[in-house]
Amino acid sequence: MGEEGRLRTRKEARATATEHLGSAFYALHPGGWRDYVTLLHPPYTLWHLSYVVLGAALAPAIHYDRLAATLIAFLLALGFAAHALDELSGRPLKTQIPSPALWLIAIAGLGGAVGLGVAGSIAVTPWLLAFVAFGLFIAPAYNLEWFGGMFHTDYWFALAWGSFPFLTAYWVNGERFELSALAGAAAAFGLSLAQRTLSYRVRTIRRRVREIEGTVLYLDGRSERIDRAWALAVEERALLLLSGTAIAVSVAALLTRV
User: With contact defined as beta carbons under 8 Å apart, do 204 and 215 qualify?
Assistant: First the structure.
């Protein structure tokens, strides 16, 4: 094989490796129903829904029907609607879902969440409408980067997808805030900020970096070649562990109330 052939083979191998890594560590092979699973961001959606469970578990009182309704509302608004809006804004996951379908998912998801919120405001407390209004605003404001991206920041992410689900579930169940609400909201904020911090480089490498080449030289004389997979390994393992840990802590807190 000539030099030109070897170069072509290396380029093809790098292109195959780039495609294999995908847009996210949980992304399935593009196409068909798999795109809709990828769109849901399964580990992250479960992670943020765990804040709903934790909020209900730490509230002064817990009502399982209210917890179930809150979980469904956030699944619709965050799991489906917010992620559909995010995919409409630049196709970060590179799915083949048609734009009209994404708009339908976003509108139906937000509509369902708002409907549950309005029903809850009638059955439980009208103060719930304040949470509904914030959710209805922040989902498109964050994901579609309204106002020049003013709300598309790490801190707004931590507030909207961390503290907000926790506080909503806490209020719906307890109908008041106590000191545990402040501590829990801070914990959800911090964990979500850690998620955002870890995922920044992961997203950059997977979606914007074509190739990473180099060698790590250790003091004992060993060497190790580095590539994109090497650069992703630690952060993505940490993200997966944090996701599982957040879910486990929330379930443990809920089980203490059963």
Answer: no
Rounded to 5 degrees, what are φ and ψ at 257?
A: -95, -10
Cα–Cα distance, 221 to 219 (Å, whole number): 5
Contacts 24+ apart (CB under 8 A), 94-100: 94/23, 94/30, 95/30, 95/35, 95/38, 95/39, 96/30, 96/31, 96/35, 97/35, 97/36, 97/39
* 151-188: pLDDT as tens digits: 999 999 999 999 999 999 999 999 999 999 999 999 99
In sequence order, the 6+-apart residues with CB closer than 8 A to the CB of 231 are 201, 205, 212
Backbone phi, psi, residue 50, to 5°: -65, -25
Strands 214-217 and 223-226: antiparallel
Q: What are the residues facing 217 on neighbouring strands? A: 223
What would the mean pLDDT of 222-251 be, rounded to a whole number? 94
Maximum C-alpha span of the chain? 76
**Residue 148's beta-bridge partner residues?**
none
pTM: 0.89
